[in-house]
Structures are given as structure tokens and as C-alpha cells.
Amino acid sequence: xxxxxxxxxxxxxxxxxxxxxxxxxxxxxxxxxxxxxxxxxxxxxxxxxxxxxxxxxxxxxxxxxxxxxxxxxxxxxxxxxxxxxxxxxxxxxxxxxxxxxxxxxxxxxxxxxxxxxxxxxxxxxxxxxxxxxxxxxxxxxxxxxxxxxxxxxxxxxxxxxxxxxxxxxxxxxxxxxxxxxxxxxxxxxxxxxxxxxxxxxxxxxxxxxxxxxxxxxxxxxxxxxxxxxxxxxxxxxxxxxxxxxxxxxxxxxxxxxxxxxxxxxxxxxxxxxxxxxxxxxxxx
Length: 284
Description:
It is a single chain. 71% of the residues lie in helices and 1% in strands. By secondary structure, the protein is mainly alpha-helical. It has one domain (21-283). A two-stranded antiparallel sheet has the order 1-2.
């Protein structure tokens, strides 16, 4: 049913019981465009989320930094002995890997609640849904930035500065921001509709942590298993940022794999968001 008028100042209403794919895609693109235009709002809300999360705490987000530092120190000494690796080479690798993995796992967990955590705002104010996903991106970037202190201290202690090769990590970091938004747009509606999905995702992330080279180096597995690591999206996405910061450059296969998985993630997220965008307000 469609009711519209072209008179100046008149009300124009349009009701579609089942909008076409073209209409849904156009509305999703408009939602993203409007969300990006509100950058002052979602950046401020993301900053306030961090302040509210640690309100009343003495160290605030630095508690996360302290816990990461303790974990790096404990695991560095233990696994360097178990794997028989040089402490000066393993400590920077472990510190950087844990910090990057903490960002990934936190971003995935936060993506599950990016809409349900803002249910009151969604029900009371009409805003583009991508604004809430961008708010989650800012929140995770700020929280992850606190752990960079651990990497800087470890690199300084062991003199493991990457040099000019470190700038090669910038494209990977930009890709991570896009992927973080795509994950929020993908998992946010799914977890709002099915509330038992977040525990499943948490279990999957825990398994991915152990099967991905985070606390162990790829050189510890055989050549055949190492060649199959490019099929692991967590490894390739880690490596495009980690390798330059450790003084080496990712191979072409790693970049192709990381870009391929990112394109697939963005495509699935865009298709799902366009499909269910109009129902999110009823699911939260």
C-alpha cells in the first residue's frame, strides 16, 4: 500500500509489506551514509562508553593493560622454555600477538552486543543502525590502544623496533577497521535475533586462539601445515599487521587470503544487513 502526495508541506507515507531487494539495498546504503555523517556522535559515544565502563576504577582501562602485561610476562617465560625459543625473539612476538588478538576477540564479542546493548536508544530515537556499529568500532579501538603500551615497553626492553617496515602495517590496520565494522553489522542483528549465538561465538573464538599462531610461531609446524595456515583467516589477518611490526613483510599469499576473507565478510555483512535492517528494532 502506498499513500503519497506531492503538495508542499504535505505528509508522504509509504508502506511496503515486502520491499524489493533494490529498495532494501538502497536503504542500507543510505543508512551507512547517514551513519558515517554522524561521526561526531558515534566517536563521542564510543569515548563515553569507555569512561562509563571504568567509572569508579583507580586505573581505568589500564587494568586491561596491566593484565595483558602480566600475561605476556608469564607466558613468555613459560612458552619460550617449552618451545625452546630465544627469549629475545619470542617476547616481542608474543606481546604483539596477544595485543592484536585481544583486539580481535574483544571486537567480535562487542559486535554481538552492539545493538542489544543500545536497545533503549534504538527504541526511543530514530537513528541509522550503522551508527551503533561505528560506536562499537570506536569503543574497541580506544580500548585496544591502551594495550599498545605493553608492545612499546617490550619492544624497548628487547630493542625490537621494526624500522621503516613498520609502516607496511598501516594498510592492514585500515583493513582491520573495515572488518571490525563488517563484523558488527553482521553479528549485531544475528545475536539480537538469536540470543544463544554469543556463547557459541565465544567458544569458536577460544578454539581459534589455540589453532592460530598467537602464542606459538608458524615455524614450529611442518612445511605442509604451514602452507595450510593461509586458509586460516585469523592467521592471515594477524600477519598483515604483525609481520611488518616485527620487521618483515607478509607474503603475497597472505595478503590475497586476508583480502579475500575481508571481501567475503563485507559481502555477507552487507547482504544480511540490507535484508534484516528493518527488523532490528523489533529484535532488541
